[in-house]
TrEMBL record:
Residues of the signal peptide: 1-23
Superkingdom of the source species: Bacteria
All copies of domain PLD phosphodiesterase, residue ranges: 134-161, 328-355
Name of the featured protein: DUF1669 domain-containing protein
Organism of provenance: Pseudomonas poae
Keywords: Signal
Organism lineage: Bacteria, Pseudomonadati, Pseudomonadota, Gammaproteobacteria, Pseudomonadales
Amino acid sequence: MSLSMKLRIAGLAGLFLSPLAQADFSIPGFELVHTAPVDTALGAADLRQPGPVWIELFDAAKSRIDIGQFYAADHPGSVMDTVIEHLEAAGKRGVKIRFLLEEKGIKLSEASTLERLRAIPNLTFRVLSYGQLSGGIIHAKYLLVDGQQAFIGSQNFDWRSLEHIHETGLRITDKAVVGQVQAIFEQDWQAQAALAAHTPVPLPATGPEPARTGNYLVASPQRYNPPGVGDSQLELPRLLSEAKKEVRVQLLDYAPLSYGPDRTRPYYAVIDNAVRAAAARGVSVKLMVSNWNTDALELPYLKSLAVLPNVEVKIVTLPAAKQGFISYARVIHSKTMEIDGQVAWVGTSNWLGGYLDNSRNLEVVMRSEAMAKRVGELHEQLWDGPYAKALDVTAQYPEPHPGKP
């Protein structure tokens, strides 16, 4: 590792060693955490980066760390390299670690990273084929410490997510929400054990309709949600139906399409219908997506939105890193929504079929003016900046190839 990289990582780690010297934006129980990609004009001085936050969480662990992820990828000399060092240190001091990975994420993972994780003392590594449960995947990205703190966000367990991708997440200390996230992990951990043993997968008990006030968790798929956790596929359209003035949305990908067998793309109208209904009643919809959202099947739906009254669509293209091309990076990946300066949504789902209906995803709803304002400002920074361009409904766009220069 170069001296410059060591100094850089040390500087990032120092963000949490001196809490009086750092800025962080939070409301009771929730801290907004943001990856501003290096080598861009973007930044958020009041928001901590995920690397230092994850390190802080791992260092604070006394008895247990639970991690649920889509895939895992490290890179020598990266911030993630240091994050894993602190996870290793936790295991060495006796902290019990459970790491649950999606089976389809194995191909996306770095083999050396998986080998490194499996070698950590006191770490139990399991792979779950979520498709055997619901036809989807574990797409959620989250971790828990001692059942008292959690992190949920768009950041994959990937070195690029900590440095080269626009990401947004939450460090959570709210007791109720942390308890619900823990229950989701336990449900999926038990499901993996049942599948491995060729026994029936236990279903969560049904509970009362969850409260929709204050700050709360929703998740998918509904069938495998613990009691008290609402259904994302119902909650997102419901929140959009409440909008009166403005909705700001930032996503990697948006289209009323799902993923079917033989690479088919079945129609999925749940979210799109709610967005169009909001625009039809006069709500201003500002939708911002990545330049990976311009493939031949998805682009026509974006254009059909952009021609509607009250709807604006922008496509964001981030500049290349100074070090050169990095596959599957330099993109906006945050999944956020702000409604009327009153409600903030920070989650792990793209807005297509296959995410809210049959995959494991987690979303946090915060009925907080302060959080809504800050999430809206993150959106506005990109929206008004040099990287976001209004979608031209008459133009042809290149097919995205995020893995190739």
